[in-house]
Amino acid sequence: MAEQAARGAEVDVDVVVVGAGPAGLSAATAIVEAGMTVAVLEARDRVGGRTWTEHVDGAMLELGGQWISPHQTVLLETIERLGLETFQRYRDGESVYVLPDGEARRYTGDFPIEPATVAELDRLIGVVDALAAEVDPEAPWSHPRARELDTVQFDAWLREQTDDAAAAHLAALFIGPAMLTKPSHAFSVLQALLMAASADGFSNLVDEDEILDRRVVGGMQQVSTRMAEALGDAVHLGAPVRRIERSDDAVTVVADGVVARGRRVIVAVPPNLITRIDVQPPLPRRQHQLHQHLSLGLVIKVHAVYDRPFWRDAGLSGTGFGPDELVHELYDNSNHDDPRGTLVGFVSDEHADEAFRWSDEERRRRILESIGRYLGPEALEPVVYYESDWGSEEWTRGAYAASYDLGGLHRYGADQRQSVGPIHWACSDFAGHGYQHVDGAIRSGRAAAAEAVAALAA
């Protein structure tokens, strides 16, 4: 792997890949397996994209994507092929639910709230599941009611389905702040159904034992690291792409320190970064419109490490939910065979907006106080504290994936993976199955590689 592209280096290959996250590296791997040559150009000084396993003050933290679900079969197959091992998230003991007044209630099974609200939440989950079953995650815009479903806010639609405001609020939480990291009034019913269908149902998204089932021993970034190691010097780090010059059957990709020429290019970066690349001739009008209707959400991923997982001593799993809390969800994120205890919590969308108005010290204090309402005063004194803010990360600028504004998905979704001459697209943001997860990134990368190989073979 080239740690830094040499100034003025030039390479000639069959396919150039822009981005060394799971999507780009999966695409590059498939290109090589097809017997063709590849160059991967990555802006960062590391591979992995939105997966990043880092040591902070002596603690190993998963700063980005980390979890694996049973339905993410392509990711599971990739992990096995790469020789990696997995372990289950710790979940023994009771969970904690924090009510709007700050009262913490221990529970197992259903949320410890009004039984009528629990029943209504279950009914709403069933309603969304039934609709999601009608949606093809690879082409949600093809649903016969796509325009209707895409021009109604998810929040407003949920409130139309029930008179129980608390049930509607909870149902919205699972897709809005928890997944798209946006307020549920900021996206459509169709966008929510894509999120649900991409995970084989809304029921999977609301079941933390499904969607947050297990992790990779040593960290998720190893999926990218091992693919990159196999590609060797084909991977160029510290090489942000500035310009793509295209003709019908050739590309010249100009990056800092390296120029790569090929017959096809796969752009495998978040869609909000595509517009930072000067493409000549310019992309078609619909591509420009598409990018104007896509945006990433906002979330602070909070890591708090303790000398031991003290919550387990009290019979707690470390799992917590609080729809009105600053930290709206909390999990035991302790590493495999590590005696220390690690918690991970999330401050999302409008709560994150507010949190960034505070000083670093005040934000830390308020976040730890929120965690303390779940687990008690010991939570206030971690030995390591860190906030992952992907919105300020230069080559991401948001989390977890891009979603459309109201009405955008049915108008432009069919264009998002449409190749433009020799340019193909790959990223978890454009995935159907596995949308916004590593599983979807790998699927997307392989699909783009298959398109490029087929075009070159034609």
Automatic annotation (TrEMBL):
Residue stretches making up the Amine oxidase domain: 23-451
Pfam families named in the record: Amino_oxidase (PF01593)
UniProt cross-references to SUPFAM superfamilies, sorted A to Z: FAD-linked reductases, C-terminal domain (SSF54373), FAD/NAD(P)-binding domain (SSF51905)
Cofactor or coenzyme needed: FAD
InterPro entries to which the protein is assigned, alphabetical: Amino_oxidase (IPR002937), FAD/NAD-bd_sf (IPR036188), Flavin_amine_oxidase (IPR001613), Flavin_MAO (IPR050703)
Alphabetical UniProt keywords: Oxidoreductase
Family the UniProt entry places it in: Belongs to the flavin monoamine oxidase family.
Name this protein carries in UniProt: NAD(P)/FAD-dependent oxidoreductase
